[in-house]
Design goal:
Layout (H helix, E strand, L loop, with lengths): L1 H16 L3 H24 L9 H14 L8 H22 L2 E2 L2 E2 L14 H19 L1 H12 L4 H8 L3 H22 L1
Antiparallel strand pairs: 1-2
């Protein structure tokens, strides 16, 4: 059953890539659930009270995906991998653009509901993005695997399909990349 759904998504993506706009109309509600799951995974790592909502993240990513008229989607894993990348970029851009003064986030609250707000989580997202960017400079495949597995929630097999390597290679690269990122982020503390 799941395999049939995966195949249907792949076929619809390929039809859409071929210019069939009707395929997009059928595809949109099917992929929305998975895009929401990916976005929810991203948002679970965000600070509490984040002003960007999960649905807004899904919608922004979907609008950008639909805007790529010339995209040639290989399969569902490719599509979801690109969606995960877009969501990461949207969140990093959002974190970088948040207004701050002297390192403190500027927020409006009533006196009765005043809380201290911290931009620490935003700094962590930016630091992780910078570490992934640094990793991509010397090993793009490892960075892509981290992005697909960690942010996109893709399985080892799906990641292998997107990257074009064997699942055992994905696991080996995943372990090395996590260790490298851990050391990079520790250095930044």
């Amino acid at each position: 059953m799941e395999e049939d759904k995966n195949q249907e998504v792949t076929e619809l993506l390929q039809q859409w890539s071929g210019g069939d706009e009707a395929a997009l109309e059928v595809l949109a509600p099917i992929v929305h659930e998975e895009l929401y799951r990916i976005a929810k995974r991203y948002m679970s790592r965000e600070r509490r009270g984040h002003t960007l909502q999960t649905t807004a993240l899904v919608n922004e990513a979907f609008v950008r995906l639909v805007g790529w008229k010339t995209a040639e989607w290989e399969n569902r894993s490719h599509f979801y991998g690109v969606a995960a990348t877009l969501m990461r970029r949207i969140l990093v851009d959002f974190a970088r653009k948040r207004p701050t003064r002297g390192g403190e986030e500027l927020i409006r609250v009533s006196v009765g509901h005043a809380e201290k707000a911290s931009s620490g989580e935003d700094a962590e997202i930016v630091a992780l993005d910078e570490a992934l960017t640094a990793l991509a400079e010397f090993d793009e495949r490892k960075a892509r695997i981290v992005e697909l597995r960690f942010f996109g929630g893709l399985s080892v097999d799906e990641t292998a399909e997107v990257t074009g390597v064997a699942p055992i290679t994905v696991m080996r690269e995943w372990k090395k990349a996590k260790a490298w990122l851990y050391l990079q982020l520790k250095k930044g503390d």
